[in-house]
Design a protein that fits this description.
Number of strands: 13
Helix content: 25-40%
Shape: globular
Largest sheet: 5 strands, mixed
Distance between the termini: 48 Å
CATH architecture of the largest domain: 3-Layer(aba) Sandwich
Strand content: 15-25%
Radius of gyration: 19 Å
Strand order of the largest sheet: 2-1-3-10-4
Structural class: alpha/beta
CATH superfamily of the largest domain: Periplasmic binding protein-like II
Number of helices: 10
């Protein structure tokens, strides 16, 4: 398929740019085009501008997508490249996810300059993270630790460790891999020990819903297994009304004709949590995620689900 040009919109962080360049290279290869035929536009979002407060205090999910979505509506770009874990579960009317790239490693990475893993941290050690999910999961197994807000891009967070602001932090393995910084990982945390954020490691391509030309152009990049898994995860999050103010984790994997899903909801202090596991047909991915959420809503301790405790 030939188009006059394709315009990609992205945040300007090193990770966001790495993801946008990966999309550009994949598109160029898929269509036999030179990469420079596909333009990349950097768009600064609210989440990039406000760095002195936790995300949960300034609006949660959507902080890293709104301005980019506005550019889609204004026809200033054709494709928005997002880390799917940053995306709201309900997209604005008129926009849709046109493709999901093959998922990178979805696990979390423990990073410390002094200690080999979470269990080795001494009582009272400081862990820095901007993720409420990670904070809750950490406190669930190590309530003796102090968890502080820790924002900024990957290099900023690594520098804060060096400066002694915290003794350890957690980052997504996927982001470190994409930045060529996997040598900074002290230990990869097994999924059984720390269930990832919904859609962690997945890159989504958002387009205008009526833009058939762009939809066809990006279609070769869609990975069906990843898209199916992310559909179940996002349905779980949607039903539970999850945001950056609600500690929710979810991860799905496809194996032949089965889709396995695990979900987790925690209280912010990590003292309460509810785990759910379900298996179903890949074609019913959304229904699987919704059913898992409904089971949580029916059976979990009210203290876990209480919005007032978030």
């Amino acid at each position: 398929m030939q188009v006059a040009r394709i315009r990609i919109g992205t945040r300007g962080s090193p990770l966001a740019l790495a993801q946008a360049h990966e999309v550009r290279e994949r598109l160029a290869k898929a269509h036999g085009q030179p990469a420079d035929a596909i333009t990349i536009t950097v768009i600064k979002t609210t989440g990039d501008r406000v760095l002195d407060r936790p995300l949960s205090e300034i609006g949660g999910k959507g902080l890293f997508t709104k301005e980019i979505e506005d550019a889609l509506f204004a026809n200033e770009i054709d494709v928005a490249v997002h880390s799917m874990k940053d995306m709201q579960t309900a997209l604005p009317d008129g926009l849709t996810i046109g493709a999901v790239l093959p998922r990178e490693d979805p696990r979390d990475a423990f990073i410390s300059l002094k200690y080999p893993n979470l269990g080795a941290l001494p009582t009272g050690a400081i862990v820095g993270t901007s993720s409420l999910r990670r904070k809750s999961q950490i406190l669930s197994v190590r309530p003796d630790l102090r968890v502080i807000d820790f924002r900024g891009n990957v290099e900023t967070r690594l520098r804060k460790l060096k400066d002694g602001v915290a003794d350890a932090t957690f980052l997504a393995v996927a982001g470190l891999n994409r930045l060529g910084l996997n040598d900074r990982i002290t230990a990869v945390v097994p999924i059984d020990d720390m269930l990832p954020a919904v859609a962690q490691g997945a890159i989504g391509l958002e387009i205008r819903a009526n833009d058939e030309a762009t939809a066809a152009y990006i279609a070769p990049l869609n990975d069906v297994d990843t898209a199916t898994a992310v559909t179940a995860e996002r349905a779980f999050l949607e039903r539970l009304e999850g945001s950056c103010r609600t500690p929710i984790a979810g991860h799905a994997t496809r194996d032949a004709d089965a889709l396995s899903f695990r979900g987790q909801v925690l209280s912010p202090d990590g003292k309460k949590k509810y785990d759910i596991a379900r298996t179903g047909m890949p074609k019913a991915a959304r229904a699987l995620g919704l059913a898992a959420a409904d089971e949580v809503l029916s059976n979990a301790d009210p203290a876990v689900l209480s919005r007032s405790s978030v």
